[in-house]
Known about the structure:
By secondary structure, the protein is of the alpha+beta class.
Amino acid sequence: FGGYLVREAFELAYACACLYAQHPVKPVSLDEMAFVHPVEIGSLISIEACCVFTNEHLVHVEVQADVVEMNTG
């Protein structure tokens, strides 16, 4: 299940970078991935991406995934 979350986060980061650059980009690295809390199978998750740094040829994207509690939202 962790591999699924990594793929979802990577694909969202790619989409965020492409939207920022307004053309397809070439991924060059995945800097860090931290699982702070366990995620149970069947959990609802919210994943957000944001461009946190850019220069002429580089877009750094941060992705945050959180478990959403079904009862409280």
